[in-house]
Design brief:
The chain contains eight helices and nine strands. By secondary structure, it is of the alpha+beta class. It folds into two domains: 95 residues; 138 residues, Rossmann fold. The strands form two sheets. Strands 4, 5, 6, 7, 8 and 9 form a six-stranded mixed sheet that branches. A three-stranded antiparallel sheet has the order 1-3-2. Strand 4 and strand 5 form a beta hairpin. The longest helix is centred in the N-terminal third of the chain and has 31 residues. The radius of gyration is 24 Å and the shape is globular. It starts with 11 loop residues before the first helix and ends in a 10-residue tail after the last helix.
């Protein structure tokens, strides 16, 4: 129509720059959300308490603070550290919020289980700045860089029974759950091999500790595994526990650590915790007892 200007086409170069900036902004927003979610997880812990009374809650806060300090720093040697006693006694000062979940929800009360005896999962979120300040006073730093995903290969030997803990298979149910709990407690992500992938690679329990990471990593690559953590747990009747060996290669250096007389839950916590210690730059887990 007369008097109206025809729309002028936007030059391709300008259009591409606008699209690129828009995509970058969207990516940064998404990444910021992911980083925030990961940070929230690192500064959160859970423990079991009896009832919702303040005395047990204060004890629960202290236990959760110790777990969070270990998780955020990647330093499992803090477990049981005497220096934490004062911080744990004042843990409520670092709490940003907390919640309870009744383990017996939906079940009728028995005797005093509606008051003192009823078990609750206490979930505690801590203030990140206050936790970081405590770590600084302990001579440690928060481990904020991207944490590699552990591809975990574990041999379990109990008498004639000898198998690799796998992502599938009924015989690995308990160990698989315990490993997932250990990873969550230490702020790590783990993936397990499945039985078919182990069979295709011709990898059995006896070979695990002898194989180089280059042989093992393709087995868990599809699940996102980035670093191979290899362990061997052998039941010892004398110790009434597992004799455990772990090894991991990082930046061309081999790390090995071992201990005896523990449950497999504790063995997995120490295995994953030792890996976190190496990956976070906190030293050799052979010194972690």
């Amino acid at each position: 129509m007369a008097g109206l200007l025809e729309p002028r086409p936007v030059p391709t170069g300008i259009l591409m720059r606008v699209v690129a900036r828009t995509l970058l902004a969207a990516i940064l927003i998404c990444c910021g959300g992911v980083v925030s979610a990961v940070a929230d997880e690192l500064y959160r812990a859970q423990t079991v308490v009896t009832g919702q009374g303040e005395p047990n809650r204060i004890i629960g806060f202290g236990a959760c603070l110790e777990d969070v300090l270990i998780k955020v720093s990647g330093q499992p040697g803090l477990a049981g550290d005497r220096r934490l006693a004062t911080y744990k006694s004042k843990a409520s000062e670092a709490v940003s919020n907390f919640s309870y979940h009744d383990q017996f929800a939906g079940k009728p009360h028995r005797d005093e289980q509606g008051t003192r005896d009823r078990p609750y999962d206490l979930t505690v979120q801590f203030d990140d700045k206050k936790v970081d300040r405590i770590l600084g006073e302990l001579g440690l730093k928060p481990w904020r860089s991207q944490r590699p995903v552990l591809g975990v290969f574990v041999e379990m030997q109990h008498g004639p029974k000898d198998f690799v803990v796998a992502a599938d298979g009924a015989q690995s149910d308990l160990q698989r759950d315990a490993l997932a709990a250990a990873a969550d407690k230490r702020g790590m992500r783990v993936v397990l091999p499945d039985t078919a992938a182990l069979a295709r690679a011709n990898v059995g329990p006896a070979e695990l500790l002898k194989l180089p990471p280059a042989k093992l990593m393709p087995i868990v690559a599809s699940g996102g595994g980035e670093v191979a953590l290899v362990g061997r747990l052998v039941w010892d009747d004398k110790d009434l526990g597992w004799a455990t060996r772990w090894q991991l290669t990082w930046h061309g250096k081999d790390y090995k650590w071992q201990f005896r007389g523990v449950s497999f839950d504790e063995a997995f916590r120490r295995g994953v915790g030792g890996a976190a210690q190496v990956l976070s730059g906190n030293g050799d887990p052979a010194r972690f007892k």
